[in-house]
Amino acid sequence: MTSLMLAGLGIAGAAVAGRFMLQSFRQVQKRVANLPKTKSPLFTSYYRGGFEAKMTKREAGLILGISPSSPRDRVRDAHKRVMLLNHPDKGGSPYLAAKINEAKDYLESGGRSSR
Predict the structure, then answer these.
(1) Which of 110, 114, 97, 115 has its CA nearest to residue 57?
(2) Could you write out the DSSP letters of every residue in 18-52?
């Protein structure tokens, strides 16, 4: 008899806790729906969009993470840093590696595209 009462109390407690969680979830959903639909300030430092058909100074700088007017030694350092993270032998994409190399070549040539 006692075990039956304890089981009933346990089920009732679980039902009350579940109801509370469901109500709380609905309130949170309403608050999230009322938030303004603006860009999140957390992700504004990332470039949204694909690669351009022809390399530009701006795109080359974005790929390497430096100013497009950086000196050659800074371009080489940035290239080395980014390439170590994205090298195909280390699991990186061959396409991204090619774009990284193209960005380095473009900035080292002074903005004259070789393609």
Answers:
(1) 110
(2) HHHHHHHHHHHHHHHHTS-----GGGTTSPPS---
Cβ–Cβ < 8 Å for 63, 100: yes
The enclosing H or E element of 60 equals helix 57-64
Give the C-alpha separation, 11 to 30, whole Å: 29
pLDDT digits (tens, 9 = 90+) for 51-101: 888 899 989 998 999 998 889 999 999 999 999 999 999 899 999 999 999
d(CA 47, CA 60): 12
